[in-house]
Amino acid sequence: MGGKYYSDVQIDLKSHKLLMESESERLPLLGNSTEKYYEKPSCLSNCSSSSLFVVYLFGFCVFLISGAAIFSILESPAEERFVERLRMARQNFLDTHPSVSDDALESLITEIVLASNRGVSATRNASGTPNWSFGQSLFFSSTVITTIGYGHVTPLSRSGKIFCVLYATIGIPLTLVLLSALVERLLVPTVWFLQFLNSRLGHLYQPLNIRLFHLFIIVCFFLIFFLLVPAAIFATCEPEWDYLDSFYYCFISLTTIGLGDYIPGDSLDQPNRPIYKIATAAYLFIGITFMMLTLAVFYDIPQLNLGMLFSTSNDVNSEKVRLAGSSTGSQYGAGGLYNSTIEENTHRHVVRVRSRRDDSPSPEESAPKELRLP
Fold first, then answer.
1. Mean per-residue pLDDT over the chain, rounded
2. What residues form DSSP beta bridges with 45?
3. What is the mean pLDDT of residues 315-343?
4. Could you tell me the pTM of the whole model?
5. What is the mean pLDDT of residues 314-334?
6. Domain assignment of residue 54, yes or no
């Protein structure tokens, strides 16, 4: 015979692909070959991780400085307008009430600003709504243990400050454990959905493209149900917020930035304030959980995980890439939390290959060969 050929190949690999090599008679799985889809670009392969880290650190500093410059350019005119408006309002008050001295007005303004910075507002207290009702306190405690920390209401007593420190010290680790456990359970249907995409699209697209499509769906789900829809609800419930303000609040809260310039339920005539505060706290917990789920899916794609470029351990990088490079694409979670789930849905396949070199093969050549493919 002019060359080798294969016959009697019995395989059931579902989404896996085979590459038959005529020279070595081996059948490796492309799905487990990380070199094909996860090869580091040539421009980066010649650079050390330390050099890349220095370049990234420089770029980060430039990004930070440029952000400060842009904020200064955008916000300085608005601040000047507010200062001018406040100066005119103060002068009009003094002209209207000549019996009030400038020093007395200054003392009153100082006390009001100091109280406002501590979460006490004269207008809100005049409405008879306390800051430390059960609903308000539950909302405050949720912002503490989720590290959002709006800062609109703070403990006033010494005992309250001490308890806040102890409560945050215990509550933040407990919250992280709870959120990690919730993300772990949400990853199970997420992995199933990724496996479904692989089973349907694995013969048409590469694993990386499928995983990017999977990430796109997760991001769209988070954007719609935890940013766009809640923003519309807050815009309806808050009389002084427009849709942009509501979307801004949702993003700032779920990313745990917590600037505190927009707080739901603090308007003077807010109906059912305690229930509204409790519902907002529940939204924050669920939203942060799904945000962590989205980040977990994003982090598991090595091409998008820039942190792998700066790792000093090649073995760790290789293992991460090997796990992420599987065509099943279901290695989400730290430490392989879902290996058991994946193994339950992944079968071992036996490939029997009989190679014939001539019309009269030897007994050794005619015996079927067994290759076990993971």
1. 75
2. none
3. 44
4. 0.67
5. 46
6. yes
Q: Within this chain, do residues 141 and 103 fall inside the same structural domain, yes or no?
A: no
The predicted-structure confidence for 170-196, as pLDDT tens digits, reads as follows: 999 999 999 999 999 999 999 999 999
Are residue 196 and residue 78 in the same domain, yes or no?
no
User: According to the model, what pLDDT value does residue 65 have?
Assistant: 94
| CB distance 210 to 198 below 8 Å | yes
The domain in which residue 250 lies consists of 131-311
Model pLDDT, residue 266: 78
Contact 144, 171 (CB under 8 A): yes
| Poorest-pLDDT segment among 93-102, 135-144, 364-373 | 364-373
